[in-house]
Every structure is written in structure tokens, then in C-alpha cells.
Amino acid sequence: xxxxxxxxxxxxxxxxxxxxxxxxxxxxxxxxxxxxxxxxxxxxxxxxxxxxxxxxxxxxxxxxxxxxxxxxxxxxxxxxxxxxxxxxxxxxxxxxxxxx
Length: 100
Hints:
Blueprint: E1 6-11, H1 14-30, E2 35-40, H2 43-50, E3 59-62, H3 63-69, E4 78-80, H4 83-92, E5 96-99
Parallel strand pairs: 1-2, 1-5, 2-3, 3-4
């Protein structure tokens, strides 16, 4: 079985979200075979919801941040219970980690 390469880009701030979106698009262009996720928590959640972007097809939103801020993710966006647990799981599964 082939080992698929996967990249998790972590964005905890609005600025990091901007970089993560650009990084994901650039990675997809350079290496289209790589699986990508952009995991957002803290300040990046409100920024992501306020300004949707085509790169949001890779977005994974922290449910804890949604609860803490009283925000709701629109239909179609992936929400996980806790970004920290999701990031840890992905690393244990062999995903490469990058902080934007």
C-alpha cells in the first residue's frame, strides 16, 4: 500500500489563517497529491467565519472555540470537538504539521 503524504496547517490567529490559506493553495499547486487540512482555533475561527475563502474546502474548525465565542459554523464546514486533540491525532497518524 502506498503511503499518502498529508499536511496539517495550524492557524490560531487571523494573520495565521491568511498565511495558511495561501500555503494550502501553494502546496496544492506544487504537490497536488498531498492531502491538506487547515485547522483553525482561537482568533482564526472568527476570521474564517467572517471572510470565507475558496481555500476553506480544507478548513477544520475547533468546536471549543465556537462554544467559547458563541459562533456557529455554516453548513458544510468540518468541525471537530477540540483542535488540540485533532492536531495530536493527525500527528499520530503520520500527518506533517506546519504552523502558519
